[in-house]
Amino acid sequence: MDDRDNARRVIYTRYQAMPDLLVRDRSLTLPVEVDERLARAELRRQIGRLEQELAGLFAEAFGRVELEHRVAAIGTPRVLGLGELEQLRDDLAERVADARVTLREQATRESESRELLQRMLASPADYKWVQISRDDLGLPGCGHWHSRPRLGPLGMLMGWWRVKVSSGCPLAGRLAAVER
Questions:
Q1: Which label site among 6, 77, 154, 166 has the fewest CB atoms less than 10 Å from its CB?
Q2: H/E element holding 110?
């Protein structure tokens, strides 16, 4: 019993002394000067890296997906405070994340279209009247692939289907005639 009582007394005295230590530590706090130059330099480095990454994502998406790439101006020209730099960095990080998601979704749609085209080329009769454009595949220019019956209505009755590749963009003369 004596060992337990001694242990309890030691614990009790330690807990009694704890508030005194906390109160003493509060009064001993020293004022600390913060050098904002290092924080500003690090934030500017992070903002520059995020702007560069956003520009790269915009270049990758150009012509395929519309991405917001502009950096909004913040009022009049001045040196931004740490809070404003952090806000700018956080906004850029969010825009980069949104751009990555948009590009990932576009890449998924394009790969699904490529797989559909491969299946369509292997078995045109299973994909009657399906049309896939070059834009769906992420390719530049005009044109599309579509499954059509060979020899028109006779081919449709006989089950003769084929995948036809369009010749590309319409001629300018034809477009002018259609506009009139």
A1: 77
A2: helix 82-122
Distances (CA, A) of 28 to 19, 23, 58: 14, 9, 53
What contacts 11, CB < 8 A, 6 or more positions away? Answer: none
To which residue do tokens 């034809």 refer? 174
Please write the tens of the pLDDT for every residue from 135-176. 888 887 788 888 888 887 777 777 788 888 887 776 665 555
Express each pLDDT in 59-114 by its tens digit.
Answer: 888 877 777 767 666 677 777 788 888 888 998 999 999 999 999 999 999 999 99
The 3-class SS string of the chain reads: CHHHHHHHHHHHHHHHHHHHHHHHHHHCCCCCCCCHHHHHHHHHHHHHHHHHHHHHHHHHHCCCCCCCCCCCCCCCCCCCCHHHHHHHHHHHHHHHHHHHHHHHHHHHHHHHHHHHHHHHHHCHHHHCCCEEEHHHHCCCCCCEEEEEECCHHHHHHHCCEEEEECCCCCCHHHHHHHHC
Interatomic CA distance for residues 134 and 166, integer angstroms? 10
